[in-house]
């Protein structure tokens, strides 16, 4: 396909109930929140989400979309624990809690099309007392016993990038791509939201090779959503909206508070959302870290 542009509705239409979806980004950094809000507005259900979580996890939990969560953590950074995630877990949400390194290793195994990868991470912890973990013994002279971290295969991955063209060439300009490449390579389909959709020549891919995490053949669809990571940050374009995140955390106080937040910031168009959070000038001015 030479033109992979999608609307938000098109994107949601490519997903289905019961999928396992990897969400890129890290806590409050470069989360594909416009795509998350589109899923929250949809009729999709029974999703398994794999993430180094932030408000993406909490919003999907509060919207009743999660069947299971596989995670290394769920944090809002400055606000340590997402309250909607906490409420869902206390209510019995099915989870697989992993060490951050084990989650990375599971994604890497899937990206390599391996059934598992051996690791020392997790040994002598309660993590491996959860159902499903097995050990493997080295066939060499050392005879060491390892955790066999199973592959975390994804039906789809959703990521937020800074620039993209219609063919699926993407640039992640922040210095912290974390594990987005592994998310993409572990998935059958990869959808990205992008701050700006530009002509291919404007990407200067050769000069920006270190920001070009995956080849365009990996990308299934591109959704142009300016400020699509808000309220998380997308440095260097804009930083984290701490005031909005604080307001979000307060919506777990009651069903009424959540319903009010949802009506004001979720069940609306991207254009209305941007206006509701203070407009382009406000988001552009959010201070982004300088590295």
* Main sheet record: 8 strands, mixed
What is the tally of beta strands?
11
> What multimeric state do the chains show?
single chain
Poorly predicted runs of 5 or more residues: none
Distance between the termini: 36 Å
Overall pLDDT metric: 96
Q: Give the structural class.
A: alpha/beta
Structure overview:
By secondary structure, the protein is α/β, with parallel strands linked by helices. It folds into 2 domains: 8-100 and 154-229, Glutaconate Coenzyme A-transferase (3-Layer(aba) Sandwich), CATH 3.40.1080; 116-150, no CATH class. The chain has 11 helices and 11 strands. Strands 1, 2, 3, 4, 8, 9, 10 and 11 form an 8-stranded mixed beta sheet that branches. It has a 3-stranded antiparallel beta sheet with strand order 5-7-6, covered by helices on one side. Helix 2 packs parallel to helix 3 (55-62) and helix 3 (55-62) crosses helix 4.
